[in-house]
Amino acid sequence: MAEFKQTIVVRSDLKLGKGKVAAQAAHASLEAYEIVLKEKPEWAVAWAKGGKAKIVLKVPNEETLLKLYHQSKRLVPAALIKDAGITQTKPGTLTCFAAGPAPSEILDKIFSDLKLL
Questions:
Q1: What is the CATH number of the domain that holds 12?
Q2: Fewest Cβ atoms nearer than 10 Å: which of 36, 52, 55, 106?
Q3: For 29-43, what is each residue's pLDDT tens digit?
């Protein structure tokens, strides 16, 4: 049986506080999971049974974030997060996205060059 995980990708150029990063990553994780639940419910079940593994990675800017988001969206369900702009960013700032849960081998092909946050 394939291993499943969820990958969360965060912009490092925004210099967000730790709490803000955690909140944005949580938004991305939940939103992506809800999409997977509708589009690939068998992946959601396998991920839940396997421990709900997540990995959080960083990218240097919005351009890289969007490039990887669009690349991953072609292969797995993904959710892009725009901040409301109440605390640390301007409204509509793209902060992060989550891909999956999906088979680890698919996600690894997309994100293997990124570093951990």
A1: 3.40.1490.10
A2: 52
A3: 999 999 999 999 999
